[in-house]
Amino acid sequence: MIIVEGLRAAGLYLFLKGKEAELDAHMSGLVSEIEGYLYDRLSIEEMENLEKLYVEQNNNLKGKI
User: Does some domain include residue 1?
Assistant: First the structure.
């Protein structure tokens, strides 16, 4: 078992989301699970700006996920 949380989850989500057209059903399912995890912890606005927040490693984001 591998646990992916916090900024690692955000980074993995952004990476996989960028490759979404190439993903098989298993990986698409993983993207959906990570997306649900992130939506449970972040606002819609934060999700819309996730890449920017991830790159900047915003302190608010670190504390939420």
Answer: no
For residue 57, what pLDDT is reported? 75
Contact 38, 47 (CB under 8 A): yes
List the domain range (segments joined by +) for residue 11: 6-64
Task: Tell me the per-residue pLDDT of 9-29, one tens digit each, with 9 for 90 and over.
Answer: 999 999 999 999 999 999 999
At residue 43, φ and ψ (nearest 5 deg) are -75, 165
19 inside domain? yes
Q: Across residues 20-39, what is the average pLDDT?
A: 97
Question: Which one, of 50, 21, 56, lies nearest residue 38 by Cα?
Answer: 50
